[in-house]
Amino acid sequence: xxxxxxSPAYHLRVAEMPEEERPRxxxxxxxxxxxxxxxxxxxxxxxxxxxxxxxxxxxxLLRERDGLRGLAASDLTEVAGVHGLGHAKATTIAAAFELxxxxxxLDGDARPQVTGPEDISRLLQPxxxxxxxxxxxxxxxxxxxxxxxxxxxxxxxxxxxPGRIAELFREAIRRNASxxxxxxxxxxxxxxxxxxxxxxxxxxxxxxxxxxxxxxxxVVIGQGARRWVSMRERRLGFA
Length: 239
Known about the structure:
The protein is 42% helix and 13% strand. By secondary structure, the chain is α+β, with helices and mostly antiparallel strands.
C-alpha cells in the first residue's frame, strides 16, 4: 500500500457552512434522528484541530474504530489516544454511550421496535452506509418486534454457506426469540440485491421455517436518503 496523500485539500469547515446546515442547528430544527452518526458524534466532540475539522475527526474515528459499535466497545484510554481527541472528549463519548445503555436497561419497552423495513434502515443505515467493507448484521426481536440484540455476524461477501446460515439463528435460539431481521450493506452505495444476496436470503428463510424462527426481512443498505432495498417487499428470496 502506498503512502497516503497528506497534502492539504480544501474542506468546508463547520464554521464555514450556512448556519442552517450545521449539525447543531439541523438537530434543533429537524431533531436528532435527521443527523448521521458522524454529525451526532461531531456535536459531542465540539471542536476540531488546526488540521482537521470536527466532522473529519468524527468520520476518521468511526472508520478507525470499525463504526459505532466498535467505538462503544473501545477502551477509554484508546479513544483518548486518538489524534484530535484527548481525555475530555473521550470521557464525553463514554458518558453518552453509558446513558444510552442505562436508558435501555430502565424499561424493556424503551427498546426500538421494528414494524417495517423503514425501522431497520433508521436503526442501522446511519452507521452502515459509512462502512468501507460489507458487513452482515442481525436484529433479534421479541414477540412485540422489539430489538433484543443487534450482533455483527461477519464482514465480507454474503454467501449461503451452511455455517453462516446457522450463525444467523444462534443468538435468536439462545434468547428464545421467534423473529429476526437481517441487514447488510453494499459499500459501492448501490443497494440492488445481488444473486448471492437472493440465494442467501432464500436459504435463511427456509432454515427459519425449520427452526420456527421467522425471518421478517433482509434489508440491503446503500448510501443516502431512501438508499436501501427491502428484499421482502421485492419478493427476493421470500416465497
